C-alpha cells in the first residue's frame, strides 16, 4: 500500500471513529444543548447519501467508512432529538 | 451527469454545508459545553488529512469539499478550545 493510500485510510478511520467520544459524552451527560439539530440532521442525511453512493459505485471503503459513520451520527441525532 | 454522480455531489455538499448552523449557533451562544473536544479535534485532523489526500491524488471534488469542511470544523474546534 502506498503512502497516499495509507493517508486516505487514516483520514477515513479518523473521520469515522471521531464520533465515538461525542456519542459516549452525550450518553453519559444527556446534555445536547450546544449541539445544532440542523447540523446533526443534515450530517446524518449526508452520510446516509454517501453510503448509498458507495453502494451504487460498489466501493467497499466508502461503504464501510460511511456505514459505521452513519450508525454513530444517527445515534447522536437521536439523542439530540430526545434530550433537546 | 449521471444520477449516481448527482447523489455523490449532494452527499458532498450536505456533509460540508451542514457545519454552518453549528458554527453560527456556537458563535451566537458561546456555548460549547456539550461538544466533545476529542471528537472536534479528531474530526478537524481527519478532514485535514482528506484535504492532503485530495491534493496528492489530484481530485478537485475531494479538495474543494474537504477544504471548505476544514475551515468550518477548525473554526468550531477553535470556539470549543476558547469557550471550554
UniProtKB/TrEMBL annotation, chains A, B:
Membrane topology: Multi-pass membrane protein
NCBIfam families according to UniProt: SemiSWEET_2
Presence of keyword Membrane: yes
Name under which the protein is recorded: SemiSWEET family sugar transporter
A GO CC term assigned to this protein in UniProt: membrane
InterPro entries: PQ-loop_rpt, SemiSWEET
Pfam families listed in its UniProt record: PQ-loop
Residues spanning the signal sequence: none
Molecular function as annotated in GO: sugar transmembrane transporter activity
Transmembrane segments: 6-24, 36-56, 62-79
UniProt keyword terms in alphabetical order: Membrane, Sugar transport, Transmembrane, Transmembrane helix, Transport
Subcellular location: Membrane
Amino acid at each position: 500500500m502506498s503512502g497516499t493510500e495509507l493517508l486516505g485510510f487514516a483520514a477515513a478511520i479518523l473521520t469515522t471513529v471521531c464520533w465515538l467520544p461525542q456519542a459516549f459524552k452525550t450518553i453519559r451527560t444527556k446534555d445536547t444543548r450546544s449541539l445544532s439539530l440542523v447540523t446533526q440532521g443534515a450530517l446524518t442525511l449526508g452520510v446516509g447519501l454517501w453510503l448509498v453512493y458507495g453502494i451504487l459505485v460498489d466501493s467497499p471503503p466508502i461503504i464501510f467508512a460511511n456505514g459505521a459513520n452513519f450508525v454513530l451520527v444517527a445515534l447522536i441525532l437521536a439523542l439530540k432529538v430526545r434530550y433537546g
